[in-house]
Write a structure and sequence with these properties.
0% strand, mainly alpha, 2 domains, single chain
């Protein structure tokens, strides 16, 4: 594999690790029999903890990659070609997120199920990219510290105020919009507080880009990530102390359920580990997986949850497997989805040509019938209008 000296390969490897963790996490969580979900079992407890790290890592890395590419080019503001690309990418992710939750049988009957409007990872990442672009444009041409400061403040505000807004509902909003802000209807993720992780990843990207030519970049970044990660991972006593000193109840609420800052600390530790091992993480297959996470995500959603048809592994094996089957099954599932995504990547151009040709041929077949139906409807409408006297007979 040809090496690009400007590419951050540890980020691709980190993203590959996160997507593989997501694959096995979704498989085991969806198919393992509840009787085996025993938190007194150390193996299950460790698995559950690392599964909880996956989404924060994925959101943070997504924000990092997009922002690193966004600010790397010399153009500023709307002149930056990455702005338009990012907007298109963000909207594409939102569209794919809804498409994966659609049901083809319902659509054929003219019905859209409520589950179609639920918000998942892709919609949140897509909106996060658009949000980062908004902050970038808002601060473009201004002092350089304003963009990273706005990103960092956004993360802090979203995480600190989470106890205040997590119980809110928005009955005046349509469900499709409320699902971005509340889990009351069943959304898996919401834009708040998850945008905070993407914004923090963008903040890290700005720092990394600013000091990319520093002599001791990696030793400094690894040390700072470990220190900050450890501080955030054990930050609960800090919030308890703030609650005691200030009497502000929200600090006590954070202390009681300090998962956002703890997970952010975990993410920084993961960053440090992958930076430390960066010279050993240049395997071509691993990096390809990291560059094809969207394809892997789509394939896994179709196979596991049965997108469009509802006929996935989840439908047939929901909460029914023993660990003896779930563990090798999860490994096989990771291999299958990864292999399918890599095969798609190697033949992407040919597959797209086939899809466009199929759509064109289908349109050519259907078009005469559409024209005939249109004429028939027009003639029928004219006859009805004549019957009721709205149009004079010729």
């Amino acid at each position: 594999m040809e090496q690009n000296p400007r590419r951050l390969y540890f980020i691709d490897a980190m993203r590959a690790w996160a997507i593989l963790m997501m694959l096995q996490g979704h498989f085991v969580d969806g198919l393992l029999d509840p009787v085996f979900r025993d938190r007194s079992n150390m193996v299950y407890l460790v698995w559950e903890y690392f599964r909880g790290i996956t989404a924060p890592v994925f959101f943070t890395v997504s924000g990092f990659i997009f922002t690193y590419l966004l600010i790397r080019v010399p153009q500023l503001g709307l002149d930056n070609p990455r702005v338009n690309k990012g907007l298109k990418r963000g909207l594409q992710l939102v569209f794919i997120g809804y498409l994966l939750r659609s049901n083809l049988f319902g659509l054929l009957q003219g019905e859209i199920y409520a589950s179609t409007y639920l918000v998942d990872v892709l919609q949140c990442i897509g909106l996060s990219i658009i949000g980062i672009i908004g902050m970038y444009l808002l601060t473009a041409g201004k002092r350089k510290w304003m963009f990273p400061a706005l990103l960092l403040v956004s993360t802090a505000v979203l995480f600190i105020l989470e106890p205040a807004y997590k119980q809110l509902s928005y009955p005046l909003l349509p469900d499709a919009l409320e699902n971005y802000l509340s889990k009351v209807n069943g959304s898996v993720f919401t834009i708040i507080p998850w945008f905070g992780y993407s914004a923090f990843g963008a903040f890290l990207a700005v720092l990394f880009n600013r000091f990319k030519n520093a002599r001791y970049l990696y030793p400094s970044a690894i040390g700072a990530s470990l220190l900050a990660g450890a501080a955030l991972s054990y930050s609960s006593p800090v919030f308890a102390g703030l609650a005691q000193l200030s009497g502000v109840g929200i600090f006590q609420d954070i202390f009681t359920n300090n998962y956002l800052f703890i997970r952010l600390g975990n993410v920084l530790v993961v960053f440090a580990i992958f930076m430390l091992l960066r010279n050993f993480l240049k395997n071509a297959t691993l990096l390809k997986l990291g560059q094809n996470t969207l394809a892997i995500y789509v394939i896994h959603f179709v196979v596991l949850y049965g997108s469009l048809t509802g006929l996935g592994l989840y439908f047939y094996l929901h909460h029914s497997l023993t660990p003896a089957i779930a563990i090798p099954g999860a490994i096989s599932f990771m291999i299958l989805c990864s292999f399918a995504a890599l095969r798609y990547d190697s033949r992407e151009a040919a597959i797209k040509v086939w899809i466009f040709d199929t759509i064109r041929q289908a349109r050519q077949l259907v078009e005469p019938w559409l024209i005939y139906t249109q004429r028939l409807l027009r003639l029928s409408a004219e006859r009805l209008l004549r019957v009721f006297g709205f149009v004079k007979s010729r």
